[in-house]
Design a protein that fits this description.
The structure holds 2 protein chains of 2 kinds. Chain A has 9 helices and 12 strands. By secondary structure, chain A is α+β, with helices and mostly antiparallel strands. The longest helix of chain A has about 30 residues. Helix content of chain B is about 65%, strand content about 0%. Chains A and B meet through α3, α4, β7 and β9 of A and α4, α7, α10, α12 and α13 of B.
Chain lengths: ~325, ~550
Amino acid sequence: MLMTVLTQTGLHEMAALFPLQPPAASTIAGGVDQLYYFLTGITLFFTVLIFSIIFYFMIKYRRRSPDEMPPETHAPLALELAWTLIPSAICVVIFFWASYLYVRNSRPPAASSEIFVIGKQWMWHIQHPEGPREINELHVPVNQPIEVTITSQDVIHGFYIPAFRVKKDALPGRYTSIWFEATKVGTYHLYCTEYCGTDHSHMIGWVYVMPQSGYAAWLAGGEQNESMSKAGEHLFSVLGCNGCHTPGGDGPPLAGIYGQTEKFADGSAHVVDDTLIRQAIIQPDSVQLPNYKNVMPTFKGQLDEEQMLQLVAYVKSLGPQERKNGQ
Amino acid sequence: MSTATLDLPPAVPAESRVTYLNATTGIKSWLLTKDHKRIGLLYLCTITLMFMIGGLAAFFMRLQLLEPQGALVEPETYNKLFSIHGIIMVFFFLVPSIPATLGNFCIPLMIGARDVAFPKLNLLSWYIFITGCLLALVAIFSGGVDTGWTFYTPYSSTYSHSAVTWMAMGIFIAGFSSILTGLNFLVTIHKMRAPGMTWFRLPLFIWSMYATSVIFILGTPVIAITLFLLALERTLHVGIFDPALGGDPLLFQHMFWFYSHPAVYIMILPGMGVISELITAFSRKKIFGYSFVAFSSIAIAVISFIVWGHHMFVTGQSVYAGLIFSGLSFLVAIPSAVKVFNWTATLYKGSISYEAPMLYALGFIGLFTMGGLTGLFLAALATDVHLNGTYFVIAHFHYIMVGGAVMAYLGGIHFWWPKITGRLYPDLWARIAAALIFLGFNLTFFPQFVLGYLGMPRRYAVYPAEFQVLNVLSSAGASILAVGYAIPLIYLFWSMRYGPIAPQNPWGAKGLEWEAAATPPPTENFDVMPVVTEDAYNYQPLKGAHHSV
């Protein structure tokens, strides 16, 4: 065997030159890989099966004389049913397995910390709630679930960390999210996977998974920005939002509103989340609360996505307790 | 009719007989023809040219990807290359490929009709198609398009500075050609079958063309509307897809894939029909499980309309929508599997010969099997999240579109070439080309499965260095593939003038086009209108008493 001849270093060199597996560095990567190997096994099995049968028939039933005519064969119903039902059963297994993982992977654990990502032609802008901002680099602590809220400043991008097996599109005007928990300290690729124009292939970066202590030190060091919610509070007063959004003002007070289910003037009820706050800033009349006049102007075009996220962070930071006490 | 080739009189040189090729002469007689056979050839010439343009773009792409930092062009140019490759190959080659050429040529001959139901409409649809082609060429030569063949908004509608509107209009117009062709085929198959040609005696190629025509008529208007709205937003800034104008970018993807997923089946269903013809002819067997193969075509056509959401698992579509679209996508795997098993079983106890068309057919079964099975990775939610948007997707659909559709197209062209031209091509060269295409194809696209699993995103003009070895392998395969495509182009051209005169039925195949129509056929197809008294693929001469044509 060739493989046994190769030295250990040779194998490593070959793996570097000709990798067959991406690094697996998140809690969900293992589960996705197991399913991937199962599917690879199914694919190999049926491919080899079909090729073998074809080759066997090709040789065994080759034409031996030009006017040879084969006997008639009939298709037994049992056989037709077998090769309809067996693949169906396999598909059902794959469907439930894959869906179980997908549903599980789409629910962030309650203890997740947050990171915000904005795609812009052609860079990834990343903002930590504590204040630090990064471009095309993402520092995260190991063994800590992290929920990533993703949006786009312009066109659709795709936020993809292959080592974590996670991907989600960054959509303009909308928030999407993923979560992951890194399991191995290291440096991993970050890609854009939704074609976004000229330098799409340069919209790449690195994810640095750090030990938790190292991450804390990283947060503390570097440039000291104000936290996202502080920046949002600042914006809130610069834009004059606090003129109306006060108890007794023209607009509803926002303390404690985040996470509540509100009934709106059009009769619908929605949870006040990031998307809804964003919508209220861009298109206030679409989320009109009863008992308030439709007087808020739109801030469409006046705020970039980063400022929008800061305002959301501020509203979120106002906490639910005050609200409950107030009512 | 037992051994058709032996019973018939010796081949008459086409020149000494009136055929559809020499009935009238001059360029005008071709450009104004209403003969479905000549229209099929007009399409053949047109889409061969388009294939060469799309292929050239692919050639430059593979050159670029020889080096991680890009060996040839700037990213902007690379983006235009892959956009042109995708758009030309999908909308101007694969969609019309088998239906417009072999479908046009064979459907009336196979069902025993003198022409399609609406011959003038048929010619009109070719003119519409070349108008679309010309607009696409205008788009290419006025700077090209850099949106990818998927035209995702708001990039295509607001941000791209390329000739998007021209290209969208080209596809919009070419779509009407599909709609009219589908309409023509449906009416022809319903109303013009020869006496005795019942639905369940139809060759399976006709069933697959029927299913394809249904998708043409129901699906194409949706892509037409979508691209029209895109052009409207681009030129008049009507807010439909761009959130900055109050639109919804995902609405575009829903509408685009509502057509473009069924369009995948527009591209593969006709190929499946061709394969049923080839497998039976070269193993001299009735198709195994006729009704299962026939109804699986219809099942695929119907299910194809409700699986589009599987292109959008990572777009922020709700978890529940993802679950439903995933489940439905698995559903479409079953009729495809049924076809593969039935084709394979058809070989059982057959009398198998290996002329070039059969090599393409056997290659098709293998490659389609791999293409179909790797589709499971993408229908499965958890693995799709990782593989979506990577080279895995590229490899998967090239196994279906090139390993499947193009192999079937070439197999069909080789099978019916003697019928079309009255000439034979050199079989040895044809076999060599088929083998080269099979090898070159696998070397090109198999490494891309690995690249995708490793995480290499598609549409990258430059890429991390660790992906280079696999990319070089892929480019090497592409050069073999290019040689494999060039050889048939040469000998098929050569054969039109210098090939030996084809016998009436060189393969000893069943079917009205071989048994009842001369080779090449006269303009009106049949000297005596055929009456059908037997099932399709009735290769049972030893018990021959129960049929006569």
